[in-house]
Amino acid sequence: QLLLCIVTFAMVLVPEAKDQSKAEKSRRRGLARSPTANPALAWAPDDSYTSVAEYERSIQDMVRQLRNSSEPGDTKCQVNLRLWRSNRRSLSPWAYSINHDAMRIPVDIPEARCLCTGCINPFTMQEDRTMASIPIYSRLPVRRLLCQVSSEVGHKPSGKKCHKKYQTVMETIAVGCTCIF
């Protein structure tokens, strides 16, 4: 019976794992999903937003929460274990500020700022400068405003019109902090 269980396992589960592995590799390469992949396991990070509007709305929600936060605006290098948010429980705590740029959509993006030069020692809960807190960066898609000057005949050089056009670009934003030696 043990031999029968092992053979069944090898025939049923191992090929399924190979199919899932192939599906994962093809997703990383940007190819279509394998039709044999389990739909519950087929989620990829790029599937998390269904539209640009939904993505921009989620950033606006984060900015709104940051502005309406009732938490103290501490800028001290300390860990607060009573707070549930990971940025204040980290050994490299950070605070958020609002990165404002009127020439992009979304105009406001929350950006992390490290509160410590060093890192918090978990045994003493004091800053240890033998380690360093550094920002973690991520590239976010934003729409940047480009101004195209029309070349219509009969316009004076000083009176050229500007046709607003947005182009999607990737912008580097600090999303958290971590410790390094």
Protein topology:
Blueprint: H1 2-29, H2 52-67, H3 86-89, E1 94-100, E2 104-105, E3 108-114, E4 119-120, E5 127-128, E6 132-149, E7 162-180
Antiparallel strand pairs: 1-3, 2-6, 4-5, 6-7
What does this structure look like?
- By secondary structure, the chain is α+β, with helices and mostly antiparallel strands.
- It has a domain at 54-150 and 163-180: Cystine Knot Cytokines, subunit B.
- The protein is 27% helix and 31% strand.
- It contains three helices and seven strands; from the N terminus they run αααβββββββ.
- It has helices spanning 2-29, 52-67, 86-89; strands at residues 94-100, 104-105, 108-114, 119-120, 127-128, 132-149, 162-180.
- The chain has a three-stranded antiparallel sheet, with no helix packed on it.
- A hairpin with a 6-residue loop joins strand 4 (119-120) and strand 5 (127-128).
- The longest helix has 28 residues, at 2-29.
- The termini are far apart.
- The model is unreliable at 1-46 (pLDDT under 50).
CATH architecture classification name of one domain: Ribbon
Described by strand count, sense and barrel closure, the largest sheet is: 3 strands, antiparallel
Segments where pLDDT lies below 50 for 5+ residues? 1-46
Look at the helices and sheets and give the structural class.
Answer: alpha+beta
Neighbour order of strands in the largest sheet: 2-6-7
In percent, how much strand structure appears in the residues?
25-35%
